[in-house]
């Protein structure tokens, strides 16, 4: 068994990419570009973070893309995985420490911070944020919405573009609220264009054809 394990590990060392060479309690033996490292859950080495660990598998993350490795499996090129994800037009969002799914992005070319809100009908942002990114509210439609503090007057607008990662969508409906919001809520006017699935602490959004 020791010789067999060493043979697998030696083969992984000679190849480029990332491989799972062993599991030691809450630590994994990761072979990254031919070098072996002992990494605890939550630890990062050479840009690769060990997200979670099972008996014979490990989830690692690089640049917000989560990949599953199997014990004894061939090394995985994370660059190739990222390329395939881009070709599939997929957004991968890891959960924040608070359990929310956050994403930097842009509205009409201006940078914003999104927080996924599957219960929101539209993308929602506060008035100050709308003014900061230069939205023309004079062309919007006036409406009412119900909040925890009662009904409030809002403005419905159409965003020329919304971009997250490498995916940019045009003509996305949004609502502007009079009060400030800590983040731009990413609602279903954007999310409905994707097939969504959640795998533990990772949300995947794959653009519908």
Span between N and C termini? 48 Å
β-strand percent reads: over 45%
For the biggest sheet, the summary is: 7 strands, mixed
Radius of gyration: 22 Å
The total count of helices amounts to: 4
What characteristic shape results from the CA principal axes? elongated
SSE order, as H and E? HEEEEEEEHEEEEHEEEEHEE
Mean pLDDT equals 84
Q: What's the total count of β strands?
A: 17
Low-confidence stretches: 1-15
In helices, the fraction of residues equals 10-25%
Q: Structural class, judged by helices and strands?
A: alpha+beta
Identify the quaternary structure here. Answer: single chain
Give an account of the 3D structure.
This protein is of the alpha+beta class and about 210 residues long. The protein is about 15% helix and about 50% strand. It has 4 helices and 17 strands. The chain has helices at about 1-15, 80-85, 125-130, 190, and strands at about 20-25, 25-30, 35-40, 45, 50-55, 55-60, 65-70, 90-95, 100-105, 110-115, 125, 140-145, 150-165, 165-175, 185, 195-200, 200-205. The longest helix is centred in the first third of the chain and has 13 residues, at about 1-15. The chain is elongated, with a radius of gyration of 22 Å. The chain starts with a helix and ends with a strand. The model is unreliable at about 1-15 (pLDDT under 50).
Secondary-structure blueprint:
Elements: H1 2-14, E1 18-24, E2 27-32, E3 35-40, E4 44-45, E5 48-53, E6 57-62, E7 65-70, H2 78-87, E8 90-94, E9 102-107, E10 110-116, E11 123-126, H3 127-132, E12 141-147, E13 150-164, E14 167-177, E15 184-186, H4 188-191, E16 194-199, E17 202-207
Parallel strand pairs: 10-15, 11-14
Antiparallel strand pairs: 1-2, 2-3, 4-5, 5-6, 6-7, 8-17, 9-10, 9-13, 12-13, 13-14, 16-17
């Amino acid at each position: 068994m020791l010789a067999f394990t060493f043979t697998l590990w030696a083969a992984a060392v000679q190849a480029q990419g990332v491989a799972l060479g062993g599991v030691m309690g809450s630590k994994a033996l990761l072979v990254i570009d031919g070098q072996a490292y002992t990494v605890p859950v939550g630890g990062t080495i050479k840009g690769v973070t060990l997200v979670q660990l099972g008996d014979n598998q490990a989830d690692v993350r690089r640049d917000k893309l989560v990949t599953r490795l199997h014990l004894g499996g061939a090394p995985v090129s994370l660059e190739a995985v990222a390329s395939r994800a881009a070709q599939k037009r997929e957004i991968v969002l890891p959960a924040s420490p608070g359990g929310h799914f956050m994403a930097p992005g842009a509205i009409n070319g201006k940078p914003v911070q999104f927080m996924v809100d599957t219960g929101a009908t539209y993308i929602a942002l506060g008035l100050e944020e709308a003014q900061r990114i230069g939205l023309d509210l004079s062309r919007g439609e006036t409406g009412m919405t119900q909040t925890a503090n009662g009904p409030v007057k809002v403005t419905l607008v159409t965003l020329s573009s919304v971009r997250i990662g490498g995916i940019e969508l045009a003509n996305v409906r949004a609502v502007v609220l009079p009060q400030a919001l800590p983040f731009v809520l990413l609602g279903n006017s954007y999310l409905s264009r994707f097939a969504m699935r959640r795998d533990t602490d990772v949300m995947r959004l794959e653009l519908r054809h």
